[in-house]
Design brief:
It holds the Pfam family Ig_TRAPPC10. Helices cover about 30% and strands about 30% of the residues. It is an alpha+beta fold.
Length: about 1250
């Protein structure tokens, strides 16, 4: 325990609160290591008075052996030597031993504490199981503890704690140890808070007595620093810094009051002459030498300030705020100079300069020691002030010691240098091992002229060596420009201009003069002087070997804005394109520029200028760089990014997109070879630009640039198609050229040569679909002439078609958009061609005219393109024949046009929409039959309909159609329907098939004034018949009995050309056939289809070809039952599928069709058929596996409305109940 008996070390960074230990020292020694490690692990909340925010702190303690001399005496207010807690340790478990010795020792310990008014104590009883086993007459543990509490802790029972086997790792021991540590932290924090509060009150009282005679700042300084030490001991560095800041502010206020005539007596000790000027010492946490001087009241002003700042610097570095140190240091150095003057302190000439120089370097070295290089470079703006101040003081010392005189230092200068070096004293041990310490640098700089020139480069210029001075100045200029010091940049450039003029470096001198002429930090007279230097050289006649001098444009003028007219910066060959360039002249006087030219880079690639040259309004703004470099752009070149797109050559679809940098060679080159034209220190000036009259250039001659903003107008060359990029800008002033070698952002304009284009589009008319079939429609022709000039006699040749004739109209005229008025068109038609004579039109103009066309509605019914594959998948075609919203049927009309500017014909497609859609229905009332036709207006126009007629399209009339329509003419508005009804009357049996044609006349309402001719709309359909026959021998069908069903399918007409292309036909033995699929289903569950219910038949491609299918059905209910539903589809096999060869009969069927080959909409019907006991096979497992593997499958295409008519739709057949032959037995009892 000797190590713990020593007096704790005072005023070090390792200070901890003192805790004394009395009693069994060997017991405490065994627990010391664990106690010292475990105590600071858990944080405690420290609540302070006066509403200050609570903080979490980790408590540590310096455990020492209890001695009476450690207790504070009266008047001693030091906190660092104050014991905050006293602990008595014992492991006594024997009552006799306790009464004989332990109690007496505790009593003596308690008396000493009461004598010194120490009330913060704790008794720890350590319990050990090993000791209990060695004692036979041991009382229970509570007996010893109770005795101690009764004897010493009557009113404070918590001051006695029990620690059970602390060295064991049992749960009981851990719990006891944790409870003890919590108690110890709580008592220590309570004592610390109480005594710290009492100390702060005493310090506050002492501060309030500062106006009384005899008050000493040094005594108060030591008291408040004691508080700062305590906060630092608790690692509360911010609170510790506040204490030193308060001392700093208090001392500064007293010095200012002294300067105002209200001085304190204690300031006299700080007015002593300065005997030492060895600068700041920041490499020690606490400078004990200067602290002792302050404690004895012998410190000078520089000693107090040095010590106070060293403590602030240490705490700021602990707080990780090193850059605040540099700001405070610069403020301290300036304040100390002023305070020495206010206090009228006697200082040896040059001593204060030495102290400032050493202090600046000491602060800079201290910051460099705690920061890495990247942090130093990023925060160089915080240190440049110290470097500048140190340079000024070194310069002052050079003049004082004669180190910059042309003849060197005199003997008096040498004596003064010796006195200054003597005041530095011996070098401190902390800096003795450093090769470049501030002490060594200052001593070396004052030792000789050569050493001083090394440390201060300006002396070379004063000594008449401009070549060496220029190198030093160039390095300084780079540093000043990088860190943004504008005044230093201007001053250094003036010195460089003087050196360059002495060295006859004409080009560099002119470049520096140009930068200085545009420098706003100089007055008007100086700027004009440097500008006249350039103009005088430019006006001199060149000699035979003299060359043009090229200078940077950035020092002469700044590009501000460029505006295109027209704004899009995209014009055709031969058009007018002007560029207005706005520049800001930096010269102080007007300068006459003989020629201002911009070089152009021509590229055959087009399409890149859009969006880069003209941003909507055609204005390009140039970024403005830092004024320090005298440049219009920054030292680092800006990125030139271009969009890159990779498109497919077949359909121009976008494959990939990216961004490419075109000036990567400027961005990635080495920095030491990055010779910028914006600074004359790079050593490389721009090359002169050769201006050739035949080159692609923008030129403006005899331009006078006034100081400030100027506007220059250029006319761009547009002779050849391609992209033009502005690369360089050159202004010629006599023998001098000002060159802008790189223009950013990229400025481009595009000249294009366009091929003639013809477009045809419908005019907005009666319908949102624009063109309606069956009525005259207006179509607009637009011709963009491009580079072609339409001459007199040029005409468009349009091919005539019977389905879409071109109507002649006297109102048709052609209009050239750039001219006024219209010119009449000459239209001539022949049997095959319609010729339209065009008026003469110059290139790059637009010609428009209108024509009327009429698309006839075909008499055959048109179908909608809604196909469905046999596996349920919808088939999508490239051309749709119906509108997506209202299912309007459309007709595509193709027109071939021969243009005078091309040897090839142009094929134009016009789409016409049929305004009507018709459907028919067969109605029955008993034995009477009715045909109802619904005509729906699916367009957005309103029509008048007249004379609805229904006739039979057969050679011989078999039925009579009696019209039941009352009105001859009716109005049908948009999206409305008109229903017409006819009754069928027949004398003999109904034919198996009935072909009908519905027709009606229509005219738009808008065409009634003036009157227009009615057009005819036709709709064709046919009615088929199916018969159900009872079983042989029966007159009527009966439930549960098989009946024969005969299905008759008849082709009424040959397929059209379009249908013939879509349907696959097969020729067998000279007979051309197509495949149809039929299917018999019963959705109402009245019939059960027995045997096959569907199949594929081969229908001959001939009118009136009939195919009959025999099958068996079974009625399930009695009564008048409707016929089963019969569906017919086009069967279109896949091209890769195996063709099923039919038999030699002309009309045969294939019964091996799987029901899985139907659409998804019909699968429910198939399931219902199978559920009723159909014996038809759904398909083999092999077929299903092929379908699941995604093999090519045939598809089914339904017929369009009106193409197939079911004659038996609405018919019924009488079904009688089955004969009941069952016998019912009835037993009566």
């Amino acid at each position: 325990m000797e190590a713990h008996e020593e007096k704790p070390i005072i005023y070090t960074m390792e200070n901890k609160p003192i805790v004394t230990c009395a009693g069994d020292q060997s017991l405490f020694t065994s627990l010391y290591t664990s106690l010292a490690q475990q105590l600071p692990k858990e944080p405690m909340e420290w609540r302070r008075s006066y509403g200050r925010a609570p903080k979490m702190i980790h408590l540590e303690a310096n455990f020492v052996q209890f001695k009476e001399e450690l207790l504070p005496k009266d008047g001693n207010k030091a906190l660092l030597t104050f014991p905050f807690l006293h602990i008595y340790w014992t492991d006594c478990c024997d009552t006799e031993v306790y009464k004989a010795s332990v109690k007496e020792d505790m009593q003596r310990w308690q008396n000493i504490l009461r004598l010194h008014s120490s009330v913060d104590w704790l008794i720890v009883v350590v319990e050990s199981d090993a000791k209990k086993k060695n004692k036979t007459n041991i009382l229970p543990r509570t007996s010893i503890v109770d005795k101690i509490r009764n004897d010493f802790c009557n009113k404070q029972s918590d001051r006695c704690v029990v620690l059970s086997d602390p060295l064991k790792e049992s749960s009981r021991s851990q719990e006891s140890w944790s409870s003890f540590l919590t108690k110890l932290r709580t008592l220590l924090l309570m004592s610390f808070t109480k005594n710290l509060g009492r100390f702060e009150d005493d310090m506050r009282t002492l501060r309030e007595k500062r106006t009384e005679p005899g008050w000493s700042f040094c005594d108060y300084f030591m008291v408040q620093e004691e508080l700062a030490f305590v906060f630092e001991m608790l690692q509360q560095f911010e609170d510790a810094l506040v204490q030193y800041d308060e001392l700093d502010a208090l001392f500064t206020q007293y010095v200012l009051n002294f300067g105002a005539g209200d001085g304190a007596n204690w300031l006299g000790s700080f007015c002593a002459p300065v005997r030492s000027w060895n600068g700041l010492l920041l490499r020690r946490p606490i400078d004990m030498e200067k602290r002792e001087l302050i404690q004895r009241g012998e410190a000078s002003l520089l000693d107090l300030r040095s010590y106070l700042f060293s403590r602030q610097c240490t705490l700021l570095i602990f707080l990780q705020r090193p850059w605040e140190v540099t700001l405070r240091a610069l403020e301290l150095l300036h304040n100390c100079v002023q305070e020495l003057r206010l206090l009228e302190v006697s200082v040896v000439p040059g001593a204060l300069d030495c102290w400032v120089f050493l202090s600046c370097l000491e602060v800079l070295h201290r910051i460099e020691g705690c920061c890495d290089r990247s942090q130093l470079e990023a925060n160089c703006s915080h240190t440049v002030g110290l470097w500048t101040y140190a340079t000024e003081k070194l310069k002052s010392l050079g003049y004082l010691c004669g180190l910059v005189a042309e003849n060197g230092p005199t003997s008096e200068d040498l004596n003064r240098t010796v006195d200054l070096l003597a005041g530095l004293g011996t070098e401190r041990p902390e800096t003795g091992i450093t090769m470049q310490s501030p002490y060594k640098k200052l001593k070396e700089a004052l030792s000789s002229v050569e050493a001083f020139e090394k440390h201060y480069l300006v002396s070379a210029l004063r000594k008449g060596d401009p070549e060496r001075a220029e190198g030093f100045l160039e390095e300084s200029l780079r540093l000043y420009v990088a860190e943004g010091w504008s005044l230093q940049v201007t001053h250094t450039r003036k010195q460089m201009a003087e050196c360059q003029k002495l060295l006859r470096q004409t080009d560099d001198y002119l470049q520096t003069s140009a930068l200085l002429a545009g420098d706003a930090n100089l007055n008007q007279e100086e700027r004009t002087h440097f500008c006249q230097e350039i103009l005088s050289f430019a006006s001199q006649p060149p000699g035979p070997s003299d060359q043009t001098v090229a200078l940077s444009m950035a020092a002469f003028a700044q590009l501000r804005q460029l505006q295109f007219s027209p704004p899009g910066a995209v014009v055709h060959v031969g058009a007018a394109l002007q560029l207005e360039l706005r520049v800001r002249c930096l010269m102080p006087v007007a300068v006459h520029v003989g020629q201002l030219a911009a070089t152009l880079h021509f590229s055959l690639e087009q399409g890149g200028a859009r969006g880069r040259a003209g941003q909507g309004d055609g204005v390009v703004l140039f970024p403005q760089g830092s004024p320090l470099s005298g440049a219009g752009c920054s030292l680092t070149p800006a990125l030139e990014l271009y969009e890159m797109q990779d498109r497919s050559p077949s359909d121009s679809s976008l494959n990939s997109a990216g961004v490419v940098c075109k000036n990567v060679h400027l961005l990635l080159r080495r920095h030491d070879s990055n010779a910028s034209l914006d600074t004359p220190t790079a050593g490389v000036l721009p090359a002169a630009v050769a201006v050739d009259d035949g080159a692609q250039m923008l030129r403006a001659r005899d331009v006078t640039l006034q100081p400030g903003d100027n506007s220059i107008l250029f006319t761009a060359p547009v002779r050849n198609p391609g992209s033009y990029t502005l690369r360089q800008l050159c202004g010629s002033v006599g023998r001098v050229q000002f060159v802008q070698s790189h223009i950013y952002p990229v400025v481009q304009y595009e000249v294009y040569s366009q091929e003639p284009q013809l477009t045809i589009e419908p005019l907005s008319g009666l319908s949102v679909y624009n063109l309606l079939a069956g009525i005259p429609q207006r179509v607009k022709f637009t011709i963009a002439t491009g580079h072609y000039s339409i001459k007199k006699g040029d005409a468009l040749q349009l091919s005539n078609t019977d389905s879409m004739p071109i109507l002649h109209s006297s109102r048709c005229s052609a209009t050239i958009l750039s001219s006024t008025g219209g010119q009449a068109l000459s239209i001539q038609s022949s049997e095959k061609v319609t010729s339209i004579s065009l008026p003469p039109t110059p290139p790059y103009h637009t010609l428009e005219f209108q024509l009327e066309v009429l698309c006839h509605i075909p008499p055959a019914p048109l179908k909608l393109d809604s196909e469905r594959l046999t596996n349920g998948e919808v088939r999508h075609r490239s051309k749709s024949r119906s509108h997506a919203d209202s299912a309007m049927i459309h007709i595509d009309q193709k027109v071939s046009i021969d243009c005078p500017w091309s040897i090839y014909s142009t094929l134009i497609s016009l789409t016409f929409y049929v305004p009507f859609k018709a459907k028919h229905t067969l109605l029955s009332a008993g034995r009477r039959k009715y045909i109802q036709v619904c005509l729906q207006n699916v367009s957005d126009s309103n029509f008048h309909l007249a004379d609805p007629v229904l006739v039979e399209r057969q050679p011989t009339t078999t039925v009579e159609l009696l019209s039941l329509n009352a009105k001859r003419q009716q109005l049908v508005c948009s999206q409305q329907s008109l229903f017409c009804l006819w009754e069928m009357r027949w004398a003999k049996d109904l034919p198996p098939c009935l072909q009908c044609e519905f027709s009606a006349s229509f005219v738009p309402i808008s065409a009634l004034d003036p009157p227009a001719a009615f057009k005819t709309y036709r709709y064709e359909f046919q009615l088929d018949r199916a018969e159900i026959c009872p079983a042989s021998g029966d007159k009527h069908c009966r439930t549960g009995t098989l009946c024969g069903l005969e299905v008759s399918i008849t082709r009424q007409a040959e397929p059209s050309e379009t249908e013939g292309e879509e349907e696959e036909s097969t020729e067998i033995e000279g007979l051309k056939t197509t495949k149809l699929m039929y299917e018999v289903v019963d959705n109402s569950s009245n019939w059960a289809v027995c045997g096959k219910s569907s199949g594929v038949v081969s229908m001959p491609v001939a009118p009136s070809a009939t195919h009959r299918v025999q099958m068996e059905v079974m009625p399930l209910f009695a009564g008048h039952l409707p016929f089963p539903n019969i569906k017919v589809f086009k069967y279109l096999p896949h091209s890769a599928a195996q063709v099923i060869q039919p038999d030699t009969d002309s009309c045969l069927e294939n019964d091996n069709l799987s029901l899985l080959d139907k659409g998804l909409d019909d699968q429910g019907d198939t399931a219902s058929i199978r559920s009723r006991g159909s014996v038809h096979s759904v398909g083999s497992g092999e077929q299903q596996r092929e379908q699941q593997r995604g093999l090519p499958m045939p598809r089914l295409e339904p017929f369009s409305p009106g193409q197939v008519f079911n004659w038996t739709q609405g018919r019924q057949v009488l079904v009688l109940p089955a004969t009941d032959d069952h016998v019912m037995e009835v037993n009566v009892t």
